[in-house]
Recover the amino acids of this structure.
């Protein structure tokens, strides 16, 4: 008998660190239009293949091809392009505002615009999203006033959340956007609960849960999967795999699983991977999942494969842990450029119109910012009254809190 | 009026709430078909159907998290954590989510839900079926924390909790489910059917949250207690012949400071009793409140009688449990010390 050899721990490492040449050759990308489109009534066990491929609609030439194409007309596509351009411009202005010291913190959506913007267009008003901090596109595409988003970021006198939350942790029941939590993954199971409540109430509204690749390792991701599967809740479980959880690469949360989408299989939840930088593909897959949920066919898991082109937040320097070239080497391209090319290819857009639209968007965002700043910024104020701090801790202020408010001088 | 155990009173409160308001839903581990390991929800599924009362997977964070989503939707979930000792996986959902939802969304989303959990020892439950985690909740802004001590209050407080627009942690001393317990473990327990507090109106009524109740009027010393300890303190006062005023706090957050102040200013002495461990226990908060508001009325230092700072030991349960003898010693200390 041979003596046992000492064991060694496996700690996953990304293939590329600063100074290395990015290499995405292991990332198997099917051609656009190649992946089949199952019927929404197809049994989950018959569509396991969907978790190992990537649904793509737009090809390199800018054409929409395959069985997932055709869910949007030209007007809707132009609207989608406008939403993504607005979001990118919004990001740019708010990033700059943070650098100018007008607020403490900001989180960009750069590179991931298609995911939330396209998904929102597949939902109805009244449906509820339980987002993370990187789904501002749900608000932009849902028509939420941009000035209110800025007011929140500035924690100014007009902040709808009265200066209580970190920038970008918006909340709007009316726009189907649940209050964002800083504690990761907690919202995933809450979305399932909301969907269960809708089913209990024989309502027609559905919920959408959102989580990042890193946070899928949180317990509440698994709680949500169990509950969604058990009660067949009308919920769409979105994993946004943007490759990075601050400095931790997606392989750390995934372990030896082949894809995040495959996590659905153990729960009998149909799971689909989609090209998250393809507006048409995201919309098509979202619509498919919405139809399933609204028809009482239960949950769907969607893995949006995308790339976080910016830092995690304004407090993060990605060049410290990943190659500077990685973003440009990302094989799924830029969502705005891809949709723009498509619209031009089908004769519904032009370079001139794009330049004109961009100029209008810059003006629009600048005007919103001017209006927001007329209500103050985090640094210069004015802020909500400190008196507000004591409100809405409870529906009715209990005596001990009333005493403390008095002690504070309000 | 009917004689009920605390279990029956809690079940009756569920029944009335579900009957009055179709938004009330009840779920948790084993609460559906079986009616809960303590039978607090027995018969509800049969009466209201599996959409209103149902079993949950064994996932406490999931139970509370799903409840938050339901409350955000507009239902009124009443969830059961089978033992308070199992609530730790749900702690983040309770503390970071349920408690803060109203505040962080500026009232845009609210969380009217009740999180019920059996607490306390005295049933040979060992470390994992005996804990009293109230202090972990009373530290959290946005929560309300309730501990009933008898069937009549349990029903009224639970109905008030279900009606409350904010999340309420409802801690049920499991030692009191079938009868009051005075800490003498070698004596037979008197069942609720032989106790006046087992007289429960079958109609709808509420007991206000945030209001304490004087269980025994007295002049010599104030005892601040809740749950099982109300009866242990009563026994101690009787046995020691001390004219103690026993305040059953009933709600720990927000606590009834007016009642505490009035009593301590009258007696000039204060003994605080709880079953949870001493260090940073809720008794520390009570002691500080009394010191802040009644210092010039105090004639002796405040004394705390609590569980020891150890995990609840299975074989030494009666050494751990703060029984009448320890409270009697505390009386001696504040009256003669």
């Amino acid at each position: 008998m041979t003596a046992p050899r000492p064991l060694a721990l496996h700690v996953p490492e990304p293939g590329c660190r600063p100074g290395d040449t990015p290499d995405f050759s292991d990332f198997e990308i099917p051609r656009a239009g190649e992946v089949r489109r199952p019927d929404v009534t197809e049994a989950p066990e018959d569509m396991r293949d969907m978790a190992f491929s990537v649904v793509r609609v737009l090809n390199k030439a800018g054409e929409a091809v395959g069985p997932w194409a055709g869910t949007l007309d030209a007007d809707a596509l132009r609207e989608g392009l406008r939403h993504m351009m607005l979001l990118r411009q919004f990001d740019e202005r708010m990033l700059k505002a943070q650098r100018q010291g007008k607020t403490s913190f900001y989180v960009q959506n750069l590179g991931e615009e298609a995911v939330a913007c396209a998904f929102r267009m597949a939902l109805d008003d009244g449906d509820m999203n339980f987002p993370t901090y990187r789904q501002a596109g749900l608000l932009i595409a849902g028509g939420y006033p941009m000035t209110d988003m800025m007011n929140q970021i500035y924690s100014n006198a007009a902040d709808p959340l009265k200066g209580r939350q970190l920038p970008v942790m918006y909340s709007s029941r009316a726009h189907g956007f649940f209050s964002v939590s800083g504690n990761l993954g907690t919202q995933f199971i809450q979305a399932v609960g909301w969907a269960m409540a809708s089913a209990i109430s024989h309502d027609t509204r559905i919920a959408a849960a959102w989580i990042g690749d890193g946070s899928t390792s949180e317990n509440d991701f698994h709680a949500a999967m169990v509950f969604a599967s058990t009660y067949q809740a009308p919920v769409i479980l979105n994993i946004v795999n943007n490759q990075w959880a601050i400095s931790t690469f997606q392989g750390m949360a995934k372990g030896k699983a082949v894809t995040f989408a495959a996590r659905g299989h153990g729960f009998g939840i149909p799971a689909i991977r989609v090209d998250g930088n393809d507006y048409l593909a995201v919309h098509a897959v979202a619509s498919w999942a919405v139809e399933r949920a609204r028809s009482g066919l239960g949950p769907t898991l969607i893995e949006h494969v995308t790339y976080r082109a910016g830092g995690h937040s304004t407090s993060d320097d990605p060049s410290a842990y990943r190659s500077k070239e990685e973003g440009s080497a990302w094989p799924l391209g830029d969502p705005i450029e891809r949709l723009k090319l498509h619209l031009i290819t089908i004769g519904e857009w032009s370079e001139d119109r794009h330049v004109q639209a961009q100029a209008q968007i810059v003006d629009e965002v600048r005007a919103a910012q001017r209006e927001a700043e007329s209500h103050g910024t985090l640094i210069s104020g004015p802020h909500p009254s400190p008196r507000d701090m004591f409100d809405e801790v409870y529906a009715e202020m209990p005596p001990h809190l009333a005493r403390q408010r008095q002690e504070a001088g309000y | 009026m009917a004689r009920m155990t605390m279990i029956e009173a809690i079940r009756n409160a569920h029944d009335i709430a579900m009957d009055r308001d179709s938004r009330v839903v009840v779920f948790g581990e084993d609460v559906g078909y079986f009616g809960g390991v303590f039978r607090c929800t027995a018969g509800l599924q049969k009466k209201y159907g599996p959409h209103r009362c149902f079993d949950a997977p064994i996932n406490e964070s999931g139970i509370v998290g799903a409840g938050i989503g339901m409350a955000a939707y507009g239902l009124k979930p009443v969830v059961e954590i089978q033992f308070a000792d199992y609530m730790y996986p749900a702690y983040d959902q309770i503390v970071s989510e349920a408690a803060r939802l109203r505040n962080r969304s500026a009232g845009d989303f609210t969380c009217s839900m009740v999180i019920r959990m059996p607490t306390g020892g005295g049933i040979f439950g060992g470390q994992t079926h005996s804990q009293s985690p109230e202090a972990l909740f009373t530290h959290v802004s946005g929560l309300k924390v309730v501990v009933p001590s008898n069937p009549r209050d349990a029903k009224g407080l639970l109905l008030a909790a279900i009606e409350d627009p904010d999340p309420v942690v409802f801690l049920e001393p499991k030692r009191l489910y079938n009868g009051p317990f005075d800490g003498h473990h070698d004596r037979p327990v008197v069942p609720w059917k032989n106790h006046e507090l087992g007289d429960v109106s079958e109609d709808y009524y509420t007991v206000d949250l945030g209001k304490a109740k004087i269980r025994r009027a007295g002049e010599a010393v104030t005892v601040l207690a809740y749950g099982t300890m109300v009866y242990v303190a009563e026994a101690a006062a009787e046995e020691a012949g001390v004219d103690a005023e026993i305040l059953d706090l009933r709600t720990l957050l927000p606590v009834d400071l007016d009642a505490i102040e009035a009593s301590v200013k009258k007696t000039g002495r204060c003994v605080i009793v709880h079953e949870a461990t001493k260090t940073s226990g809720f008794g520390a908060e009570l002691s500080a409140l009394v010191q802040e508001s009644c210092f010039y009325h105090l004639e002796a230092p405040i004394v705390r009688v609590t569980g020891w700072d150890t995990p609840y030991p299975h074989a030494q349960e009666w050494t751990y449990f703060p029984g009448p003898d320890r409270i009697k010693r505390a009386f001696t200390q504040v009256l003669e010390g």
